[in-house]
User: Which sequence fits this backbone?
């Protein structure tokens, strides 16, 4: 059971809330309170647009515990419009072949159950192709 | 127009005029053709109540679908989410038995913590019930904006008549002052009685229906009474409305009740989505209204009548304002969602809907 962690991360997971550096305007995700660009403190919240493109990807056939119900699925490095690159599942792919540079947008989806079907449902960001 | 009753005491009409300031739809992309259900259960024999129904993906439920519809409504309303004083979700498929859908939706759109949040239940009219309550909250001045969502991922028993039509989708509406709205809600009217047409007991996965009770004494009676009363009290007839949206458990019921009430096939056409997405239960009347608002022009008048088993109907008299066409373009339109389509077979449907016993 990881309920405290799920609860602490809900804003960044549900709606891509990260941070913006007040000194150099660098956009930060996930939030870490220190700007990786200039090293100063950065605690101002910033909600990302959710738009980005596929930077790299791989298809998962042997999924880790908790994610096996969704296999096979595609995991991508997504470069957000505001700069950061994040790891996320791609969803609603259909039979469309994934390509590097494809435009994607964030959606909030079910990630997995915490433990079994008696546990809480963990929701978070995934990306789908942008039409 | 005939002369309206000066103060019909049974109409639900807010003190301050209220309207829709934003709306949004969501339909998942998977489609199960009705002929595929027939192939598995009847050898392909028998009439089909719809063409196909929308099916949610493995990672979707009423919470994720409500979030997307709510985000679309926010895009159209162009308001700050912290100005919402209510986030209400009506559904008969809330993911949790205990733990609200609404708090998670409110969190995801940035409306927490200074807001009301609640889940509504009344079979297929849970969404419009929340809409009436939102009219009251805004119309009394208790809050400037309130959001009401109707969303469902309906399940039918394998092989049952309802399995052909039990679909997925819905709509979200943000209500606010009439002067800021893209459509003014002139009034609503609700008609309810205790009727045993459809139910699901606690811990049962699939609903039961009361056969002969589902048609005449339930759907037709309540919709007809609600529509007739609202129009009489408002001094209108079917001809005063450009468009009409009725709850739509299947294509035939919606066509028949609208015809009986004097509406033409053209009037219900934009809001009649059941042939291509199925019966979206608490989402049905709501998403029909989103599709109608997508194409509505200033001055168009819209009649909306929901139906929920058990049983009751909420009827709304809506007038489209000048702001509608512009705001319709600010988010994904309902027909765009419908055109994003991946056909699945019955086997994939069984996996997506969790009908496989895994252990
Ligand atoms: Zn910096």
Assistant:
């Amino acid at each position: 059971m990881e309920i405290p962690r799920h609860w602490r991360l809900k804003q960044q997971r549900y709606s891509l809330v990260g941070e913006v550096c007040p000194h150099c305007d660098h956009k930060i995700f996930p939030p870490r309170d220190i700007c990786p660009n200039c090293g100063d403190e950065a605690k101002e919240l910033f909600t990302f647009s959710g738009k980005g493109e596929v930077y790299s990807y791989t298809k998962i056939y042997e999924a880790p515990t908790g994610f096996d119900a969704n296999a096979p699925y595609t995991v991508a490095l997504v470069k957000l419009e505001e700069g950061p690159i994040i790891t996320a599942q791609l969803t609603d792919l259909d039979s469309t072949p994934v390509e590097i540079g494809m435009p994607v947008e964030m959606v909030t989806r079910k990630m997995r159950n915490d433990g079994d079907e008696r546990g809480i449902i963990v929701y978070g960001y995934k990306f789908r192709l942008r039409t | 127009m005939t002369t309206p009753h000066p103060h019909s005491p049974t109409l639900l009409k807010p003190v301050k005029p209220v309207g829709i300031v934003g709306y949004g739809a969501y339909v998942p992309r998977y489609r199960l053709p009705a002929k595929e259900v027939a192939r598995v259960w009847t050898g392909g024999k028998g009439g089909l109540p719809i063409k196909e129904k929308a099916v949610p993906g493995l990672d979707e439920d009423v919470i994720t679908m409500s979030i997307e519809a709510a985000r679309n409504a926010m895009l159209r309303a162009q308001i700050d989410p912290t100005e919402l004083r209510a986030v209400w979700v009506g559904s008969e498929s809330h993911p949790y038995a205990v733990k609200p859908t609404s708090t998670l939706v409110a969190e995801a759109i940035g409306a927490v913590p200074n807001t009301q949040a609640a889940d509504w239940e009344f079979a297929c009219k849970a969404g419009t019930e929340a809409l009436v309550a939102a009219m009251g909250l805004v119309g009394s001045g208790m809050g400037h904006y309130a959001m009401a969502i109707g969303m469902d991922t309906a399940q039918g028993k394998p092989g049952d008549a309802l399995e052909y039509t039990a679909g997925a989708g819905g709509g979200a509406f943000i209500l606010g002052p009439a002067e800021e709205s893209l459509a003014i809600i002139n009034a609503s009217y609700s008609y309810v009685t205790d009727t045993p047409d459809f139910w699901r007991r606690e811990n049962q996965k699939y609903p039961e229906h009361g056969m002969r009770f589902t048609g005449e004494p339930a759907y037709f009676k309540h919709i007809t009474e609600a529509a007739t009363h609202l129009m009489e009290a408002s001094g209108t007839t079917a001809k005063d409305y450009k468009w009409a949206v009725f709850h739509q458990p299947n294509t035939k019921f919606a066509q028949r009740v609208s015809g009986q009430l004097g509406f033409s096939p053209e009037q219900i056409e934009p809001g009649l989505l059941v042939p291509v997405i199925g019966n979206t239960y608490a989402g049905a009347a709501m998403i029909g209204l989103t599709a109608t608002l997508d194409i509505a022009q200033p001055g168009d008048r819209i009649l909306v009548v929901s139906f929920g088993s058990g049983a009751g109907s909420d009827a709304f008299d809506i007038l489209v304002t000048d702001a509608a066409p512009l705001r319709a373009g600010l988010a994904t339109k309902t027909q765009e969602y419908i055109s994003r389509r991946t056909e699945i077979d019955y086997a994939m449907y069984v996996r997506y809907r969790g009908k496989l016993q895994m252990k």
